[in-house]
Amino acid sequence: MKRALLLTGKPGTGKTALIKEAIARTKVGGGGFYTEEIRAGGIRQGFKIITLDGQEAVLAHVNISSPYQVSKYKVDIDSLNRVGVSALRQALKESDLIVIDEIGKMELLSPQFREVVTQAIGSDKKVLGTIVLNPHPFADEIKRRHEVRTMLVTRDNRGDVMGEILDWLTEATN
Question: Which of 13, 37, 109, 165 satisfies CB 3.0 to 4.6 Å to 22 for a cystine?
């Protein structure tokens, strides 16, 4: 069995929702974080990080100041490191499952994030996450690792993917 299961697919296919639902439906103790959109008036303004123990931080927003930018969003690397990377480091020490949502362009701007992702993938822990679909040197390297299984999520296969995630979460790690 592969220790890391990474969902990939186009934006809006429900990758994060699948992870949140799978965690809610199982009793696996997990640590790490997921991302959510920040919306105002129905328009996406940015993204926030939410740790599995309830901490939150702005990851990216159209109205913050930062030298880092992806599309129209300025990326707050300090918040990512302080909240997201810290949650992943804690999960490496304390949890059976490490949740990383997501290994994407914004997060990969942080060397600390790349380092902890590499540590998580190489650990004996299960890693459930999402990873950018489009080519990216670091992400492509992660996808090729022998510990990693990637699954393409579409609107049409969400039910099948959920079944596979639940089966994977409840399997013993070999």
Answer: 165
